[in-house]
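G.,

No rush on this.
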Amino acid sequence: MSEIVTRFAPSPTGYLHIGGARTALFNWLYARGHGGRFLLRIEDTDRERSTPEATAAILKGLTWLGLDWDGDVISQFARKDRHGEVAHEMLARGTAYKCFSTQEEIAAFREAEKAKGVSYPVFLSPWRDADPATWPDAPYVIRMKAPRAGETVIDDKVQGAVTIRNETLDDMIVLRSDGTPTYMLAVVVDDHDMGVTHVIRGDDHLNNAARQQMVYDAMGWDVPVWAHIPLIHGPDGKKLSKRHGAVGLEEYQAMGYPASAMRNYLARLGWAHGDDEFFTDAQAQAWFDLPGIGRSPARLDFKKLENLSGQHIAAMADADLMPEILAYRAAADLPDLSQAQKDGLLRALPTVKERAKTFPELLEKAHFILTERPIALDPKAEQALDPVSRRILSELTPQLQNASWERDKLEAVIADTAGTHGIGLGKIAGPLRAALAGRTVTPSVFDMMLVLGREETLARLTDAAD
């Protein structure tokens, strides 16, 4: 079997949509899982709407998602001369023709057909079989010679066999009168020249496949494997839009989801491997196949995303988490952390990453290590540090001074102090949380003390007692 080559071919007219990100992911998984190549092409032929900023956003989004592509990024616009060359080769083959019909003539033809009761008239050019000797010295377009009878069958690995009546296909334009190629031609030429073997894309392109297949046939080229995947819908089952929340990939980074969780979640949107929900990249690449893609639109489910996100945060190595957290802060326009804060956060990660579903939640748990003395108290912490509690902390501090800084030893010292005052450990934990973090909802008191260390812990307790 020849090498498998897939591609992602976005138009640089805006942000990278989450649906586009999933399409890229499916192509990446299929190529990587089969030892093939994953290529990236920017379809920038629409010069009015294509922008360098949108291209940069697409590349940034794919890079964050961890989808590495092979070779250079291809610009479709830069290949326009090659597209024109193929159009003229089809002319020479007799599978395309010059059409000199004006816009007015085409409009008049359609109006006449509608008057006859034809709802969607297909333009029949009078130049299709015209003698070249009759060609006028006038602007022309190059049109494909579409089959007039029979059926075109798209053998789709997701949708099954899709049959299109050829009488509904027009002689589409492949080269405009100004010499620029149309999308339908450019896509096929690029895919052929890039060696693309599998075209995995949204099912909104399914109707295009019949027209594009005609170009392959006209040039005698091998038709790629088609796989048209259903679109992503919102939780209400309607087409995904901004009213459902985030639709741009970069928004998910700014919301604090790790890239591994997004890969896992997007892979599960419309594709399944048994009942597996949480899986690694290696597993996804080994398992991903086209028959596992469903035909129905997938529904975005933020609860499932959050659940997977929490699992990935808990499973990630601390050294891998740190750069992602810092990148999240940058994406969310949060201030940089000092080196001391970074060092402290790295020490705190084993304590705070459990049960944190997003990076904002994780950083909220890590507030105690990111804040500095004097510790600002929130209203509940103020209440917890009443005069009685402050007196107990002032008694506790010298006892901790000489304690061995190990969890069981710290627990014993604090339990002794609580017992002396006839209160339970829980009664002293509240003031301790307030003193160490300025809040009453924190990680375990002992976890915080171990992360903060003896000197910083005692300094905070002294401040609170005073």
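When you get to it, here's the other one too:
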Amino acid sequence: MNEKGGKSRFTEGKIFQSLLRLALPIIFANILQTAYQLIDTFWLGRLGANAVAAVSLSFPILFLVLSLGGGLTLAGTVIVSQYKGAGNQRQVDYSSSQTVFVIFFISVFLAALGYFAAPPLMRLVGAGPEILTESINYFQVTSWGFIFLFMFFVFQSLMRGIGNVLLPMYIVLATVFLNLVLDPLFIFGYGPVPGFGVAGAAVASVITQGLSAAAGLFILFRGKKGIKINRADMKPDSSWTKRMFRLGIPASLDQSTRAAGMTIMVMLVTSFGSDVVAAYGIGSRILSLVIVPALGFAMATTTLVGQNVGASKIKRAEKIGNLSNKIAFFGLTGIGLLMFVFAEQLTAFFVPGDERVIRDGALFIKIMAPSFGLLGVQQVLNGVFNGAGFTKASLLISVFNLWIIRFPFAYVLSNNTELDFKGIWWSFPVSNLMAAAVAFIYFKMGYWKVRTIRRRHINSLQK
């Protein structure tokens, strides 16, 4: 389907096909991104448990940094998608240039901060003397990769904003295969290449991230794939930067809040012993797999809603939200029911032979799995709100889900009822239900549509 009259192809045609065309490559790219961690863990495991521990300590801090980058680049997706829907190619290019400009300086600052703050940060998260040096080296090398990682995030988000999700996926696929080769090369060394040990995994990642960032920037500067960035547009623009931060900071806090919430849950779980921790870990892995398609549809929904809001097709944007909502609810409910049936087998796959962990882990999955559809509803409706430019709504729903419902319920039920640690399990479906209900009610109230129409009317009067 070609574009006509400057309008995006996603502002017309069949919504279901558009959703699938956007969501499936995003889901696959997200799966590929997790391959980086799996590859690193596989090769580092050959060095021993200390090597894996040295890298694992960095994950909470790295996740917080990536949350900041992901939130700010989401702002780029929203802004570009709305201008794309409005058929304003000049603003698509200008906004893309500004996004690259702002994120570049933020990434340089974070890279330098991460490098020099690595020693106290690693001590803060509990690195013992046996892994302190390796954990510091790994984090320092990884910190310089923030520049390349953020630049690729920008490319990925901007391409997503105009609906081009295949190109970033191909680049991620190529770099994952390259990382598969570079990891053992730089960890163990070969021929003239010295082995760097734990830091070698970071060196391999930085190289692949650098290549992906270079490819992305080359495509953006060349301007043959729907966006052309220009050096002339890369200069301070305070009004544009304020708009980016107004959209991006709530999205960053949204992701950071989730990370902090899960960390608090882990602290609660650890008080019940190692067997419960193992059961929780298995359930969390299952949950992380389910979130991948949910996030894929949420990101696709953000792009579609953003483009249609930009084209002033508010009714079509609402139809997109309704359809995404149904797909997420029924699709993930079906997956949840399958996991309910095969809960014991799934748990036994991770911990064969440990009957108590298999029993507790299977119970966690059985309690949580039927609510996966509700989790999907919350995610895709957050995608609707983000696409309409109301990232604060997504933040507030996430805070409500994790901090007002899930953690308090988990604490009260596990410490003050006969459910014991099973109370933690029950906090998941309860919080999924209530968060989905709040998101759905807000969506149906239509306040997000009224605000969108009013804001666009004010902007038109100011022109």
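Residues 255-458 form one domain. The chain is about 85% helix and 0% strand.

Enjoy the weekend,
O.
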